[in-house]
Each structure stands twice: as C-alpha cells, then as structure tokens.
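Exercise: predict the structure of this protein bound to tetrahydrodeoxyuridine.
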Amino acid sequence: MPEDLLDAAFAARKCSHSPYSNFRVGAAVRTTDGRIFTGSNVESSSYGLTICAERLAICIAIHEGHKDITEIAVVADTSGAPGPCGACRQFMYDFAPTATVLMANLNGDRRTVNVGELIPWGFGPSDLLSFESRRGDSNE
Ligand code: THU
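Solution:
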C-alpha cells in the first residue's frame, strides 16, 4: 500500500475530537478513482454516540459519491498495530468488503489484512437481498 494513504491517516488523527478518552485515531480510505477521504474519532458527551475514525472516513467517501473503496488505513497510539473495533469492521464489510486494511501505530508497527480477515463470515447487503426475494413466502 502506498505511503500516502498512511500519511493521510496520520494527518487525520490530528483532527481527532477525543476529550473523554484522549485516544486519538485517524483513518483514510482510497477509492477506485484514486481519491482519498479521511476521518478521525469524534466523541460525544453521551459516550455511546461517539463515531470512530474509520466509519467517519467511509461515510465521507460515500457522501461525496465515491463508493468503491479499495484501501483503508488506520492509525492509533496502541502497543501493536491497532485492530479496528467491531462496529467499524461491520462498516468495512458493508461498504468495502474487498478492501485492504493497513493498521499502524506511532512506533512503526504495522499490519495489513483484508476486510474478510477482520470479519469472517460476516452479515452483509447480500443477506438482506436474499431475504427480500423470499418475502411473503411464509410466515417465518
Ligand atoms: N475508536 C476509533 O476511532 N476506532 C476504532 O476502531 C476503535 C475506537 C475510538 C472511539 C473512541 O473515541 C476512542 O477510540 C476510544 O475507544
């Protein structure tokens, strides 16, 4: 994965609004047309409403009309490479099921995996499509 996506994630991390956890996360996604979209974690005083860096970056790409995400970079100050939370793994599976994910900490530790490795046998859009096609077949 080219370094520019990681650089973008590092830069995004600086925008983190994380007064409650003081845990800053940056993320960047690349789309098929070569565009990069970034996000950082934005925390709410109602803690559960916090949005993670990865989901914000994906939402911004989608909102801007760039839906084909091929690469994702995540940066946080963890002891090893930072594994995304479960909610972000689901979001990746929804919107970037074939993407490569590069995770890096501030000490130079890195790990690269595919989304399928982060969320094996996930629930996704195709599960709802197969449900829709069966609607009305039975009462179950
Ligand atoms: N966080 C992320 O931004 N991404 C993750 O994958 C894990 C957690 C944020 C949410 C919260 O602001 C802080 O890190 C501590 O959980």
